[in-house]
């Protein structure tokens, strides 16, 4: 599989570009094997790669030349290995909800458990609690129902990759983009005691064939003892990593955006951006 991802920023006059943080290289693992990832930038930049605390491949681009256009393009070749019908070997202790993470897991999971202060609310907590069928609910069924509830109960609304609604806003509006749905799902399951992390990356629509995609994609991974990090995609009502290419994981959507950066220039010089993602076998 090949992915070409191009982000273009335009300005009305040449501006000084500050350092940009790039999350463009997919995460290698059981479900994804990266064979090649090349990044090209115009104007020319010096690029330094490193891993962050969660194992994301982070490139920092530093510029020395002012420009009125910034183009960041990645070309990726990879193999997708996740099965379409996965089986999750969840530990007996976690098959039924509620359950408790053991002390070692809980220390490692840290901030990925519990609601985020800016997005949590009693409305979101109550909405999530409505999916709990009883005192002992099947864990996977509960997560699947919340995933399906977002896909069926909210209107999908594609939006340029700037800004993310809080979970409370998405719940009140009844609509949102994939990243809004991911935030709602993550906050909902965290309020129930699950550890969850947001994921940015790409979605391959197996029925669409080659061609341009809408944009990048966002979903959630939930940690279950024995099963590990299990992907849930509320936009497509899907569970498991089939057709998903994870690039970055994190607690907050702002930390896993593909490109973040700033510039120094006249007020109003920013004209906008375009994001193009192309997929081929």
TrEMBL record:
Q: What protein name does the entry list? A: Transglutaminase-like putative cysteine protease
Q: Which organism is it from?
A: Oharaeibacter diazotrophicus
> Any idea which UniProt keywords this protein has?
Hydrolase, Protease
Q: Which residues form the Transglutaminase-like domain?
A: 170-236
- Extract the InterPro entries matched here: Bac_transglu_N (IPR013589), Papain-like_cys_pep_sf (IPR038765), Transglutaminase-like (IPR002931)
Has UniProt tagged this entry with the keyword Protease?
A: yes
Per UniProt, what is one GO molecular function of this protein?
peptidase activity
- Keyword Signal among UniProt keywords: no
Q: Which Pfam families match?
A: Bact_transglu_N (PF08379), Transglut_core (PF01841)
User: Mind listing the GO biological process terms from this record?
Assistant: proteolysis
């Amino acid at each position: 599989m090949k992915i070409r991802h191009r982000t273009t920023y335009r300005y009305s006059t040449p501006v000084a570009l500050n350092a940009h943080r790039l999350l463009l290289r997919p995460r290698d693992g059981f479900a994804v094997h990266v064979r090649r990832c090349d990044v090209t930038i115009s104007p020319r930049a010096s690029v330094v790669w490193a891993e962050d605390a969660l194992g994301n491949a982070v490139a920092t681009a530093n510029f020395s030349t002012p420009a009125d256009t910034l183009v960041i393009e990645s070309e990726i070749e990879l193999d997708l290995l996740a099965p379409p019908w996965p089986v999750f070997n969840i530990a007996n202790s976690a098959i039924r909800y509620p359950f408790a993470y053991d002390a070692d897991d809980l220390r490692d999971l840290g901030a990925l458990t519990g609601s985020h202060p800016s997005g949590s609310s009693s409305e979101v907590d109550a909405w999530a609690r409505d999916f709990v069928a009883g005192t002992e609910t099947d864990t996977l069924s509960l997560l699947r129902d919340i995933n399906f509830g977002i896909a069926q109960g909210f209107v999908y609304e594609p939006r340029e990759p700037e800004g993310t609604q809080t979970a409370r806003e998405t719940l009140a509006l009844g609509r949102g983009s994939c990243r809004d749905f991911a935030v709602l799902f993550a906050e909902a399951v965290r309020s129930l005691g699950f550890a969850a992390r947001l994921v940015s990356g790409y979605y391959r629509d197996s029925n669409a064939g080659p061609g341009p995609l809408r944009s990048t994609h966002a979903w959630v991974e939930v940690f279950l003892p024995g099963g590990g990090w299990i992907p849930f995609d509320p936009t497509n009502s899907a569970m498991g990593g089939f057709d998903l290419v994870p690039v970055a994981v994190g607690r907050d959507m702002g930390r896993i955006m593909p490109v973040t950066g700033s510039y120094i220039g006249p007020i109003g010089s920013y004209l906008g951006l375009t994001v193009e993602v192309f997929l081929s076998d």
